[in-house]
Amino acid sequence: MKKITLILSLLIVVLASCKQSKKTHAEAIPSQYVKEIHSYAQPNNAVIKHLNLAISVNFNEEIISGTASYDITNNNATILILDTKFLTIEKVEADGIATTFELGTFDEQLGQPLKISITKNTKKVTVHYKTTHKTEALQWLSPQQTADKKHPFLFTQGQAILTRTWIPIQDSPQIRITYNATVTVPKELMAVMSAENPKEKTANGIYHFTMKQPISPYLIALAVGDINYKPISNRTGVYAENSMLDKVHTEFSDMEKMVTAAENLYGTYAWEQFDVIVLPPSFPFGGMENPRLTFATPTVIAGDKSLTSLIAHELAHSWSGNLVTNATWEDFWLNEGFTVYFEMRIMEAIYGKERAEMLALIGRQDLEDELENFKDQPNDTKLKLDLTNRNPDDGMNSIAYDKGYLFLRTLEENVGREKFDAFLKSYFSAHAFSTMNTEKFIQYLNTHLLEKNNINFNTNEWVYEPGIPNNQVTIHSDKFKNILQTLHTFIENKEITNVTTSDWTPQEWVHFIRNFPDEMDLTHFKILDNTFNLTNSSNSYIAMVWYEQAIKHNYRENNIDANIEGFLTHVGRRWYVTTIFNAYKKSNKLDEALTIYKKTRANYHSVTVNTIDNLLGYTK
Ligand code: BES
Ligand code: ZN
Fold first, then answer.
1. Average pLDDT of the chain?
2. Which atom of ligand 1 is nearest to 314's Cα?
3. Does 401 qualify as catalytic in the annotation?
4. pTM for the whole thing?
5. Atom 14 of ligand 1: nearest residue by CA position
6. Is 136 a catalytic residue?
């Protein structure tokens, strides 16, 4: 017996050392990267592993300048290719010695490859650079655009391919790097990043950051402003401008509960700290899942915690997206579909099934609207996208989110929750800190869930075909059923009172408003507005859908036009802004939309500008 054990352990040692040597070998010759149409980098030849950033932020000139140094793994290449767009490259060094470099032809979507001469032995490359006024990632805000109106503000947005407009980088989601940064900012301001963060201002305006876990370049993020920190638990907290800090803290007080609920579902939170920074209202997204520090719009601060599913969503990305990352932007649904599913499960765990089902049904209606929008381009309703010659932003619509969700929800109901949860948990832990593409996921799903349980499932139809397969599950909400009943009665009787609606949640209001029938007339609008003052709703979501309907039905009382224009001046959240401008467009009011847009365009971040320029056919 002993002998066998001895032989066995010897064998294990031998095998392990084989594996070890293979691994070292594999590290020297990494050929694990798939073809990526949105990056010039050739990571199979030479790849960056660590970034050391030393930059200063100049608010007067609206420029970031400094150096980016990279530790590289080189597979005998004599050239290192980085992605850049709208950057000025001043000088490049290889292992401390000046080396030659060349900027390739400029492409509207991708920018320019920066080709740096290296030797087979080069370990470190340093690029001296600065940003330009054409940068797409950065938004420089005047004091007027902030909450406190005293100091300027800066934030970055990296996803999908914008990091290359503020850092020269191999800008593909399948690249993973650790990073350090030293950032110098004006003394009155604080800098925070998707990294270990300060909790107080420093005296000299110099901040040091470390991100010790490898992340994709689109998740490198920086915000600079007159902000403060307030903890919620020992691993969660919020950053915001002074006048917002307490409100934000109260609104997001369930953050620790959310992290605990998420961990109970799909395993330990991998990033130690989970903080949220609330940015000025021009931030183009609801939220962005920058690791350790989610960036969020102030439009979710409703005063009643009603819009905090956004935090659950960004938190969920700490698993789906940041831990297991879509390999290319054509696999975007792996990031967002899983995240919406996870978001709903967190919401259900904390606030119950009823609330989660209302959220899911709102998503189901978004999906229906998106299918209608894409009725002439059915290929864009596939989960796996074809983005050849397209900006990845073009593929980033509700399909990835809501069809992705419906697919996973349908899977869940077919295999049962227990098995599905065990599967998801193992999926996240087996692929932590690595990338995933659609094909690899389907294989994993087949082996670890479907075949194991003898289940036939039309996965390929869900993923590779347009539209929604017939086996989709139906989502029910009694509350929403009542809302439609109330709406119906109101249409008929033109009567509705505060009593009927007194316990409605904002989600019920949204459902009520979004389902106005075409035959709604202006008296209906007047009654609703006089009774509930919807034109002045302090809930941004309710206001947004009310404005959308008002535009479509040409309701113009109660000074609503000024309110809409005010909203569009103030808020740069792309989803809201797009919905409202699209309502003008669909109602043949393009001129009106353009008149407003000419005034508000300068307030928006580049991603919102790009979308609305396209939507309204705007040219400068
Ligand atoms: N990662 C996305 C934001 C994003 C998507 C940025 C595509 C750039 C390109 C983020 O997690 C997100 O989905 N935000 C949503 C909120 C969510 C609750 C659906 C948003 O901004 O509305
Ligand atoms: Zn998301």
1. 95
2. 11
3. yes
4. 0.95
5. 287
6. no
